[in-house]
Amino acid sequence: MASFGRFIRLALGAFALLLLVVAVPASAQQVNPTASSVKEQQLLQEFNRIQGRVSIPDQRSGVLEQPQGREWREFRNVTLRWIGGIAILGMIAAIVIFYLTVGMVRLEAGRSGRTIVRFNAFERFVHWLTATCFIVLAISGLNITFGRPLLLPLIGFEAFSEWSQWAKFAHNYLSFPFTLGVILIFLMWIGGNIPNKVDVEWAKRGGGLIGHDHPPAYRFNGGQKMIYWIVVIGGGLVATSGYALMFPFYGTGIEGMQMAQIVHSIVAVLFVAAMIAHIYIGTIGMEGAFEAMGSGEVDVNWAREHHRLWLDEQNARTGPNDGQPQPATAAAE
Fold first, then answer.
1. Which positions, given as ranges, span the membrane (predicted)?
2. Three-state DSSP class for 64?
3. Is 151 helix (H, G, I), strand (E, B) or coil?
4. Which of 131, 265, 315, 325 counts the highest number of beta carbons within 10 A?
5. Whole-model pTM?
6. Which DSSP helix (H) or strand (E) runs through 50?
7. Model confidence over 259-296: pLDDT tens digits?
8. 208: which DSSP letter?
9. What is the rounded CA–CA span in Å between residue 79 and residue 212?
10. DSSP 301-329
């Protein structure tokens, strides 16, 4: 009798297993890993995101896949490094070639011994505030893109981690005075940086960087106006996109964060390349140029060669003095 009961149980189990096999669709019985992976890739390509429904307040947690993240990672790890490397190293190479072939732009008339005020103390303060913050921001920002492949192998993991942490703090906090400086620069010098016909002629004549030509210019020549608008527009873009990254998901989703990072990084590396050229011209590239932002005063002959129209305006306000050195008797008086 006991053996008959075991037989009944085995028969019922076999019957149940048969029903299960029949109930499962044929497609589910066949597993093809290759076909499954192909379908997954097609799904990722056809949909912007794979998103489910969640009951918690943060609806962003329902996003399971965001395929644009792969494109963003490729941009950050490959494309951006190429853009930054070509822009920055290309600018440095161009400057070196120019310096070796042309050299420093000298004062042809020599120094007159007389100076004229070009920038007052407040203007110089704003300039150096913005410039100092920019240099720190540039170095700390470039560390994010190039630090791991270039700096990490040289100093090791522990030192690189410590440096990167302090660089991040400096990058975040110095962004505020930098933004203030950009705003003040825009307000201070907007009146003198509106492009005009004089700038077109200045550009046609190469800005006086080559040869002995000295095209006339007002307080800011065509090149300086270009730098001004790079600072204002570029600074505005990196500040706006940077604050979007510093305070994530306030008014934007993950796609907005990715776009902000792309804008921030591209504008930043181009900004750095442009400022390298600006620093070169303002230091070893042109004789007497650094004095404008150093002491605030420039030699009269420097003003006549590079900003003759501005010097004429200044002389018209102060009197008929044409900027020529005064006789010894007049100087003694």
1. 82-105, 125-146, 173-190, 227-250, 262-281
2. strand
3. helix
4. 265
5. 0.77
6. strand 50-51
7. 999 999 999 999 999 999 999 999 999 999 999 999 99
8. G
9. 42
10. HHHHHH-HHHHHHHHHHH-S--SPPPPHH
Q: What percent of the chain has pLDDT over 90?
A: 60
The amino acid occupying position 69 is G
Give the residue extent of every domain in the chain: 116-326
Q: Give the distance from CA 222 to its chain's centroid.
A: 22
Strand-pair partners of 105: 286
pLDDT at 17 over 80: no
Whether the CB-CB separation of 308 and 217 falls below 8 Å is answered with yes
Q: Which amino acid is at 217?
A: A
The CATH code for residues 116-326 is: 1.20.950.20
**H helix runs in the chain, sequence order:** 2-23, 26-29, 33-46, 68-74, 80-101, 121-146, 152-155, 157-189, 197-204, 222-229, 235-246, 254-280, 290-294, 300-306, 308-318, 328-332
Query: What's the mean per-residue pLDDT of the chain?
Result: 83
Residue 286: alpha-carbon gap to chain centroid:
26
Tokens of 323: 């900027």
Task: State the virtual CA torsion across 173, 178, 181, 183 in degrees, nearest 10.
Answer: -100
Give percent of the chain with pLDDT exceeding 70.
Answer: 75
Q: Which residues contact 212 (CB under 8 A, 6 or more apart)?
A: 108
Question: In the structure encoding, which two tokens stand for residue 152, read together?
Answer: 């990490």
The two structure tokens encoding residue 235: 């600074």
* Interatomic CA distance for residues 193 and 191, integer angstroms: 6
Please tell me the predicted confidence (pLDDT) of residue 249. 78
